[in-house]
Every structure is written in structure tokens, then in C-alpha cells.
Design a protein that fits this description.
The protein is mainly alpha-helical. It is built from 7 helices and 3 strands. The longest helix has 14 residues. The C terminus is likely disordered.
């Protein structure tokens, strides 16, 4: 894809590492041009294996957050077994999309508005025609799912589950 989306190299990697660590995850940097382990789509798309999110400098921030959120929404007993493909659950996929938008606000230089624009530019598709329309008008099930699992407060702020710090990063 050649769209002008925000890339990992455009933001502070330390804030990404801190954000992921709150959920018991580790960012694993991959050398430029090298294949990304655990990448479902290949090319510059982020990859996931166990408790690790793999990315290069050219990995889109939306991809990194999306894959990280796939791991975040999984129950701890399923997370360790993940390699490349996290789920085939529509509920988990919707929760992943919702949470990645919320977590973008924790990354200076990213934020939810930029992330939603990048998701649209990249080709995410939602039945209301845009990521913002879905997030604001059609994502109540995803939001409720996240609140029920302690990943969002009832006010919609992110909250790491209490056991996240007990999950060892591999």
C-alpha cells in the first residue's frame, strides 16, 4: 500500500513499548526490509506471536495497534498459543478495532482521529462507510464487550486488566 499513513518510525517507540507493557505485551523491532514474524498480511504489516508484537519502522501504527489489540482482547489462556492469526470471532474483531482507536490516544502524534483516517486510507471497511461513523454510531456492541471484560471503563477509557502485569512477555 502506498497511502500516507502514520508509521512506527514517525512516533516515539518508547511510548509504544510502555503502552504494550501495560497489557503484558512486548514490542519486538524487526530490521528494515526483513520479513515480519507472525504477520498475517505480510509486507509491512505487524505480526503477533504469543505475547509479542513484531513491527518494522515502516509498519503502520494502525496495524501495530490492531495486532496488539488482537492479543489484548484474548483471554490469557489463549494468548500464549497465538501465532499470526488471533481469532475468527466477529465479536473479538470488532472489539479489536474499537480498542485500537481508543488506545491511539495514548500515543503522542497518533490519536484516534489520525488512526481512523489511516484505517480508512488503508481500506478497513465498515457498513456505515467510514471508521469514524462505525466508531461513533455502530460500535456499541464492541464497546460493551470491552467494558464487560474490564478493558474499558464504563466511561470508555482504556483499563489494563488486573492480571496483565502477571502475564510474562516471551
Amino acid at each position: 500500500m502506498s497511502s500516507p499513513v502514520l508509521r512506527l518510525a514517525d512516533i516515539d517507540t518508547g511510548t509504544v513499548e510502555s503502552l504494550l507493557a501495560r497489557y503484558g505485551l512486548a514490542l519486538r523491532r524487526v530490521d528494515d526490509g526483513a520479513p515480519i514474524p507472525g504477520s498475517y498480511w505480510g509486507d509491512e504489516e505487524a505480526g503477533i506471536i504469543g505475547h509479542s508484537v513484531y513491527a518494522r519502522g515502516d509498519t503502520p501504527v494502525h496495524s501495530l495497534l490492531h495486532e496488539a489489540c488482537h492479543l489484548i482482547v484474548l483471554p490469557p489462556e489463549r494468548r500464549a498459543a497465538v501465532h499470526t492469526d488471533a481469532t475468527d470471532s466477529i465479536e473479538e474483531e470488532d472489539a479489536t478495532c474499537y480498542l485500537q482507536i481508543v488506545l491511539a490516544d495514548a500515543l503522542p502524534g497518533a490519536g484516534r482521529a489520525r488512526l481512523m483516517a489511516d484505517m480508512d486510507a488503508w481500506g478497513y471497511s465498515f457498513r456505515l462507510g467510514s471508521t469514524r461513523a462505525w466508531f461513533e454510531q455502530d460500535a456499541e456492541n464492541a464497546r460493551r464487550w470491552l467494558v464487560e471484560r474490564g478493558l474499558l471503563t464504563p466511561e470508555g477509557r482504556p483499563s489494563a486488566p488486573a492480571d496483565a502485569t502477571m502475564r510474562a512477555a516471551d
